[in-house]
Specification:
alpha+beta, four-stranded antiparallel β-sheet, 15 strands, 22% strand
């Protein structure tokens, strides 16, 4: 069991009939199918009555008519982690994994997330919201080189460009705007890339070990995230102990500030010149593929992939039930 996480005993029979939501219609469908396939296999291996469910192929109302009692959300991107499917499940009154409607919708919107974090005193790279190529060029003048241009409401580095000259601004904007009309220009933080998962809720939420990511030429793009073996992941991170603790503290505060619950994973850059950490974004339905980072961090604490999946599933809940009763299927220390 992970250090700092409460001991629990989970009765898988009490979890009922489970739908693993995967696929969907977002740009991250391919990765979602891989995540969902891994989760489905893990849950079944632990005796959970789990079944695959693709919302792009079947109407969500079938979840109720087919007797599902909870959902493991393995959807990524739009209509998966932006609050929409969470809202539908609230209306169906089927508990689901991960943060609720408001937290999911805010976390999916990088600009809204950054506004809240900055208001709360959490460090995040400077940014500009742009709506044209000319505004992107102006942002480049203000933020400096390099600059990151990306869609505000997309994941897995979809539509992202690292801009190093004014001549790249137009193409960078056009690429990002293909995914979202809201385009984010962000100050590039030169330094080490890290990520840190969180499990739990409220005061009981705990940060897992930090992972330090070393991608070829610093290019941690969609291909290097999911389909190559050239990116190096260090867990334990190898960071000084005080830096690891500070990142975990920041991530927990970021998680709680958005009122997340269940699980999430935040990405952080450590600025090389002064070792200051900056929050980039938080993922409320993180990947669960063979290259994914939450299972890697959990494994460093002695928690297997199967144990992680069951633990997340047992935390499934509804916004409407917050503060009323504990999640079903759990006994032992709350």
């Amino acid at each position: 069991m992970a250090a700092g996480l409460p001991e629990t005993e989970i009765d898988v029979r009490a979890l009922g009939k489970v739908a693993v939501l995967m696929g969907g219609d977002s740009a991250e469908r391919e990765v979602s199918l891989m995540s969902g396939g891994g989760v489905l296999q893990a849950l079944r291996a632990r005796g959970v009555d789990a079944h695959a469910f693709d919302p792009s192929q079947s109407d969500l109302s079938e979840l109720k008519s087919h007797g599902y009692t909870r959902c493991f959300i393995a959807l990524h991107g739009r209509h998966g982690e932006d609050g929409t499917v969470q809202g539908a499940l609230e209306l169906l009154r089927i508990p689901y994994t991960g943060p609720g409607v408001m937290a999911s919708s805010i976390a999916m919107d990088k600009i809204m997330t950054k506004r809240i974090w900055r208001f709360e005193g959490l460090s995040t790279p400077d940014w500009r919201l742009v709506s044209s190529a000319s505004e992107t060029a102006q942002a480049f003048k203000e933020l400096g080189s390099p600059m990151i241009v990306k869609p505000s409401r997309e994941g897995s580095t979809m539509g992202l460009t690292k801009v190093t000259s004014p001549g790249q601004c137009e193409q960078a904007y056009l690429l990002a705007s293909r995914y979202d009309p809201e385009v984010l220009c962000e100050e590039f933080i030169e330094g080490e890339e890290t990520t840190c998962p969180v499990l739990g809720q409220g005061a009981q939420a705990r940060a897992l070990p930090v992972i330090r990511i070393v991608a070829p030429e610093g290019n941690y793009d969609y291909q290097n995230k999911y389909f190559t073996d050239v990116t190096q992941y260090h867990c334990p991170s190898g960071l000084p102990e005080d830096e690891e603790r500070e990142i975990q503290r920041m991530v927990l505060q970021a998680f709680r500030t958005l009122q997340c619950r269940g699980w999430a994973r935040a990405d952080i850059m450590i600025r090389a010149r002064d070792r200051k950490p900056f929050l980039l974004e938080i993922n409320t339905s993180p990947g669960m593929t063979g290259h994914s980072l939450v299972p890697m961090s959990a494994r460093a604490t002695g928690m297997s992939y199967e144990e992680l999946c069951v633990r997340i599933l047992a935390s499934a809940s509804l916004d409407a039930e917050q503060g009323r009763q504990p999640a079903a299927g759990r006994t032992g220390t709350p």
